[in-house]
Write a structure and sequence with these properties.
Blueprint (H helix, E strand, L loop, with lengths): L3 H13 L8 E8 L3 E2 L2 E2 L11 E9 L5 E9 L8 E13 L2 E11 L8 E10 L2 E8 L21 E12 L2 E11 L2 H4 L6 E13 L2 E10 L2 H4 L6 E9 L1
Antiparallel strand pairs: 1-4, 1-14, 2-3, 4-5, 5-6, 6-7, 7-8, 8-9, 9-10, 10-11, 11-12, 12-13, 13-14
Length: about 240
């Protein structure tokens, strides 16, 4: 049975999309077979490959200034009494020679359990099909790994580096691959939590009119510590952009 909060999220996103008529405002809705974040399942209620999630949000760009704001949401199930993740972000995109650069801030918010709330600064550089992005935690905790609300430990200064590749290999078909590395803050490491590497390999097909289908195998190492949440999964995602 789909939780009421997830149904509400889906109805709200579907209702909002027809309103996104302004050229600077775009919206998106996705259905995915499994939501993984940095290689880890975001639904730990069941150890199965199929853990469907509904996702979506919007992006607003300020004309040609390079500044933007956005919101993205997903159903989740890894924090007690919470079933929705809501991300708020803003930044600035600009060019430097042949590089496309992007700097900004993002807040990951969990309305019914703020213990997971995390804020990061990020910077990314794209050259052709290659993108390197680094995210740095500035909030007191990193997704409750340090348990900052109930201890004197901190997750601040946890870092995440992601290297990604995306290239259209034939009309409408794009090949995608990425590898990431999570380097935890000292207080988290002191708890015995190991740094880890995540990966994703797959592609997408563009049907046109904003509809695309993606498929990828994604997971992470250190499964002996993290368990099946890091297990490699085949993830299929259908996205509609407006």
């Amino acid at each position: 049975m789909i939780p009421k909060s997830v149904k509400s999220l889906g109805l709200a996103l579907a209702a909002a999309l027809p309103l996104l008529a302004h050229a600077q405002l775009t919206g998106n809705v996705s259905l995915t077979s499994n939501y993984k974040f940095r290689g880890q399942d975001q639904d730990i209620s069941k150890m199965k490959a199929f853990k469907p999630a509904i996702q979506g949000g919007f992006d607003y760009s300020f004309a040609d200034t390079g500044f933007y704001l956005g919101n993205w949401n997903s159903s989740v199930d890894w924090l007690p009494n919470n079933s929705i993740e809501s991300d708020l972000y803003g930044g600035y995109k600009f060019k430097a020679g042949e590089f496309d650069l992007d700097v900004g801030m993002i807040a990951y918010l969990y309305a019914s359990n703020s213990a997971g709330n995390t804020v990061e600064l990020y910077g990314a550089a794209t050259y052709g099909p290659f993108t390197a992005k680094y995210s740095h935690t500035v909030s007191e905790d990193y997704f409750n790994y340090a348990g900052a609300k109930n201890s004197d430990r901190s997750g601040r200064n946890t870092g995440y580096l992601n290297l990604a590749f995306a290239q259209e290999v034939m009309p409408k078909v794009t090949l995608k691959a990425s590898v990431g590395y999570t380097h935890f803050a000292g207080d988290i490491r002191d708890l015995g939590v190991p740094h880890y590497v995540d990966y994703s390999v797959g592609g997408s097909y563009d049907f046109g009119s904003g509809l695309s289908l993606g498929a990828a195998v994604a997971g992470a190492n250190k499964k002996d510590f993290y368990g099946d949440v890091n297990k490699a999964r085949l993830i299929v995602t259908l996205t509609k952009t407006m």
